[in-house]
Design a protein that fits this description.
The complex is a heterodimer of chains A (391) and B (186).
Chain A (H helix, E strand, L loop, with lengths): L5 H9 L5 H13 L1 H16 L14 H8 L13 H29 L7 E4 L25 E2 L2 E2 L5 H11 L3 E6 L4 H8 L5 H7 L3 E6 L5 H4 L8 E5 L5 E4 L6 H14 L9 H19 L3 H14 L4 H30 L1 H14 L4 H16 L4 E4 L5
Parallel strand pairs in A: 1-8, 4-5
Antiparallel strand pairs in A: 2-3, 4-6, 6-7
Helix pairs in contact in A: 1-3, 2-3, 8-10, 11-12, 11-13, 12-13, 13-14, 14-15
Chain B lengths: L8 H20 L2 H17 L10 H22 L21 H4 L4 H17 L3 H11 L5 H8 L3 H19 L12
Helix pairs in contact in B: 1-2, 1-3, 2-3, 3-7, 5-8, 6-8, 7-8
The chains are: A alpha/beta (391), B mainly alpha (186).
Chain lengths: 391, 186
């Protein structure tokens, strides 16, 4: 975050914020190199011409209170009112009288009609009513969560394309294939200079790097070496070649190739940096362990969070599959309890309480609880209905 | 700040509201849209507060979330086939060209400045979205290329080449107006 590019320095120069010595050095660089000079001219011209802020912001009208209300953080103030004792008592007295009349009416009607009341209805908000189709979970290589292409200034080369392709498929990153000869001086120089260069390392973080010794490769790989070695190529997850940069390359040339490739092949929306993907996969694994340990509610909420955070990644797709499996487990446990409820309501109440405990912390727990309360009240299975659409 | 909780969310909101609003306004060019995006950004951050846990700066985390929110919004608007109207947006082709620098010499400074502003705005709008976003954050938000790369979650080199292309394009298209500026500015 602290690196300053030449554009940052030029902007500081034209805004008069660059120390004098550094400013003189930059001016000298611009005088000596036509390309740098032309860029500095452009930065100066644009700085002057765009000085009026073309998008000058108005004052912000958003308030914390509006946000707090939407986030459920606002606490409504209780109305303060002074009421006379008679007014305070009047409503409860009327309500009690009405309730007494209603109760008497209901009791008489029940005796006269002797018809059982209809079963209660319970609206489910999280547990599905019908069987859930569970999509197959994607294959996630065991080493993907911990995989980082560059660690502490060193490239973490993989030593086979077969090991790299599953990582490439699961991460959405292409493979950078480097073939070298152990005694070739150009290869040795690339090993010790180009692949230690900060700019090269920065771009390499967007690839799965593979390094092969030409002496240990097969004929398929050697067919790539039409122009000799060192060889660099970019390969997709199916092994198809996307770009080739054969021959020796100094760091700045290699950065140009890699940056050019990244510009021409933008990252698929939803693809994450390896750090973020690794963190999500760790959470996915923890959620799956929670589910295996019977803590379904914790797994439910964590899988929901992983899916919502990055639905298009391999972690998001796997989280969705695991989450739908939990939905189906909850549905089956609920249906089993209702079958038992017809014969033995107390046993069904115990089953629902146990299911609610294992799904604690998720929306399913509220559904189990609503069904249990309805069953305890009516002593017969409630009718399940889908939740009304949210407004 | 080690993390977000009900005790410090007001401080986080009020401490970052104005800068984040400016950031979103410069990208969206619409005051009401920027206020809605600001609200959505804070709601997202609050809903996923356990993911922040105080790692990195809150300001950077908010800016990344705000930028993602803006991109999602732009993508949805595009899918609906009606991009949000750009406040004050002008078509580069509809703005009067100066007949010559000499013609302008008779213009009052205020008039020249407002014509120049419209011209600059139109040329910035004519950049590709990728170049425009990077240029606006570089020029008007004052972010370094590395900070923009952090916000957009792209390699720094990609951002440098976008800012560079935008700068060179604008310099080429606007250089003829340099003589419009009051003395001392050009």
């Amino acid at each position: 975050m602290n690196e300053r590019s030449i554009l940052d320095r030029m902007r500081d120069l034209v805004e008069g914020r660059l120390p004098a010595a550094e400013a003189a050095r930059l001016r000298a660089e611009a005088a000596a190199d036509a390309e740098t000079g032309s860029l500095l001219d452009a930065v100066e011209a644009v700085h002057v011409l765009t000085a009026p802020d073309v998008v000058a912001p108005p004052p912000c009208g958003a308030t914390y209170e509006r946000f707090a209300a939407a986030a459920g953080l606002a606490e409504p103030e209780a109305p303060v009112a002074v009421r006379s004792p008679l007014r305070v008592l009047r409503r409860p007295l009327i309500a009690a009288a009405v309730a007494a009349v209603l109760l008497a009416t209901v009791a008489v009607a029940a005796v006269l009609l002797r018809e059982p009341p209809p079963p209660p209805e319970v609206a489910l908000h999280s547990i599905p009513l019908r069987p859930v189709e569970i999509p197959a979970a994607p294959e996630i290589p065991a080493d993907l969560a911990a995989f980082r292409p560059v660690v502490a200034g060193e490239v973490r080369w993989l030593d086979s394309l077969d090991a790299a392709l599953p990582l490439s498929r699961a991460s959405g990153r292409p493979v950078l294939l480097y073939i070298f000869h152990p005694t070739c001086p150009w290869c040795l120089e690339m090993n010790s200079i180009a692949f230690k260069d900060e700019g090269v390392l920065r771009d390499l973080r967007w690839f799965v790097p593979v390094r092969l010794n030409v002496m240990e490769t097969d004929e398929v790989m050697r067919a790539r070496l039409r122009a000799g070695w060192p060889y660099l190529g970019v390969v997709d997850a199916d092994g198809a070649t996307l770009a080739e940069f054969p021959g020796f390359q100094p760091p700045e040339e290699l950065v140009g190739h890699l940056t050019g490739f990244l510009d021409r092949h933008p990252v698929t929306p939803g693809t994450l940096p390896f750090d973020a993907l690794g963190a999500l996969l760790d959470r996915l694994r923890a959620a799956q362990e929670s589910a295996a340990a019977g803590r379904d509610g914790h797994a439910w909420s964590e899988l929901t969070a992983v899916f919502e955070e990055a639905p298009a990644t391999v972690a998001g797709v796997a989280a969705r599959s695991a989450l739908l499996r939990l939905h189906e487990i909850a549905r089956v446990r609920l249906q089993q309890a209702l079958v038992v409820a017809a014969e033995d309501p107390d046993a069904a109440v115990a089953m629902l309480r146990s299911a609610g405990e294992s799904f604690a912390g998720s929306g399913a727990a509220a559904d189990f609880s609503a069904v249990r309360l309805a069953l305890e009240g009516a002593r017969r299975p409630p009718v399940l209905v889908p939740s009304p659409p949210r407004r | 700040m080690s993390g977000l909780d009900p005790g410090n969310i007001r401080e986080a909101y009020e401490g970052n509201r104005d800068s984040l609003f400016r950031f979103l306004f410069r990208l969206s060019r619409d005051r009401h849209e920027a206020e809605d995006l600001l609200q959505e950004t804070f709601l997202t951050v609050w809903r996923k507060r356990d993911q922040f846990e105080g790692r990195g700066s809150l300001e950077g985390y908010l800016r990344r979330t705000a930028y993602r929110t803006f991109l999602n919004h732009r993508e949805k608007a595009r899918r609906r086939g009606r991009l949000a109207p750009v406040e004050g947006s002008l078509d580069a082709g509809n703005i009067a060209e100066p007949a010559s620098a000499a013609t302008h010499s008779a213009l009052e400074d205020d008039e020249a400045r407002s014509l120049l502003l419209a011209r600059v705005r139109a040329e910035v709008d004519a950049l590709s979205e990728e170049e425009r976003d990077a240029f606006i954050l570089f020029r008007y938000e004052g972010l370094t290329c590395a900070a923009i790369a952090d916000v957009m979650e792209l390699p720094v080199k990609t951002i440098e080449s976008r800012v560079r292309r935008a700068t060179e394009r604008l310099a080429a298209r606007l250089s003829r107006y340099r003589s419009w500026l009051p003395a001392g500015r050009a």
